[in-house]
Amino acid sequence: MNKNLYRIAAIPGDGIGPEVTEVAMNVFEKISKKHNIRYEITEFPQGGEHYYKTGEVISDKTMAALKEHDIIYLGAVGSPKVKPGIIEKGLLLGLRFGFDQYINLRPVKLYPGVETPLKDKTEEDIDYIVVRENTGGLYTGIGGFTMKGTAHEVAVNSMVYNYKQVSRCLRYAFELAQTRPRKTLALVGKTNVLTYAFDLWDRAFNEIGDKEFPDVNREYYHVDAACMHMVNQPERFDVLVTSNMFGDILTDLAAMTQGGMGMGASGNLNPDKSAPSMFEPLHGSAPDIAGQNKSNPLAAVMSLKMMLEFMDQNEAAEELDRAICKVTPMNLNKMSTDQIEKAILKHL
Ligand code: NAD
Ligand code: IPM
Ligand code: MN
């Protein structure tokens, strides 16, 4: 990463993706000017609409071009015109796997003044981070059909994990937990049913914890119980580490506890920096509200904040966070995309 000139690739994508990306990029422009951050942006058209028009999901040539960048910023992809799975697996997972973005970091934080559906819970209670494994599990695409279309049809999607995937994800999560005051890492799994994959997770968790991170408190939750606590007692969580699929599901639930889908940020990190990392809001392309100036762009702006942190532009990230904190007490549900954008820009 060249700190004198960051090379950023933007993939606005589909539906509300381009709307929220535009807001994030306008905010990026303003904050970069103030902090003398120099960058160039290349926009890429990939997404469901692009596939519908051209037949390209993501070509080797596009992957090679993206790899020349330090960072990818993605809005959201997925179009009702395209069969589910083609873009999600081909493009989004193609990028996460292809660039070995093995950590999907999803902070869960109730911002000042935001209404949460959790009764009597405050900013102090909802403040944890989900470390979602991002290259394995049920997402690898290993599986298939046999006797398709007959009464005997078998359909398989396998939960696949190897020691390397599990251990590198756990180490990242332990290191993150070490930086936080409570130094507590909880593994979320399903050791009572998925007795192979989560046995591996559980053994690696305890071995690595004992040997390398004796200062970090360890907890374990079955995923169903974790859901219960996320609603009932979110204050018990500090850092959670979990598999790809569980992390996906838990973080939509978590986003709702922090005020809605428009409040959940995420970073797909390649901590080794062997390929670009990618920042994106955790929501999808929301075709139901696309083009109506209704989407909440804050998840996209919070993902930009994570991007600035990844760029080691901590002062800019902090300033952006202060601006977000000024905007969140406003009546977000009644505000248009544009109005939220204006409010953020005003506070920078
Ligand atoms: P979604 O996240 O797009 O939408 C779920 C609900 O949340 C919708 O009612 C939507 O209007 C609302 N919502 C989402 N983002 C919002 C925002 N910023 N402001 C206000 N409301 C918001 O999930 P979905 O409907 O299940 O999926 C739609 C498409 O997006 C599918 O093609 C799916 O595969 C894809 N998807 C893509 C990503 C991604 O690009 N990272 C993530 C999730 C889903
Ligand atoms: C997310 C999305 C993706 C996922 C889909 C669109 C592949 O839901 O980023 O949370 O499941 O990871
Ligand atoms: Mn998801």
Written description of the protein model:
The protein is 40% helix and 19% strand. Helix 1 (17-34) crosses helix 9. Strand 11 (265-269) and strand 12 (277-281) form a beta hairpin. It has helices at residues 17-34, 48-54, 60-67, 86-98, 163-178, 197-212, 223-232, 244-257, 298-310, 314-327, 337-346, and strands spanning 6-13, 39-43, 71-76, 103-109, 127-133, 143-146, 154-157, 184-189, 217-222, 239-242, 265-269, 277-281. Strands 2-1-3-12-11-4-5-10-8-9 form a 10-stranded mixed β-sheet, with helices on both faces. It has a two-stranded antiparallel ribbon with strand order 6-7. It starts with 5 loop residues before the first strand and ends with a helix. It is α/β, with parallel strands linked by helices. It folds into 2 domains: 1-102 and 259-348, Isopropylmalate Dehydrogenase, CATH 3.40.718.10; 115-257, Isopropylmalate Dehydrogenase (3-Layer(aba) Sandwich). The protein contains 11 helices and 12 strands. The protein is globular and about 50 Å long. Manganese (II) ion binds next to helix 8.
Salient structural properties:
two-stranded antiparallel ribbon, 348 residues, binds manganese (II) ion, globular, Isopropylmalate Dehydrogenase, 11 helices, 10-stranded mixed β-sheet, alpha/beta, binds 3-isopropylmalic acid, 19% strand
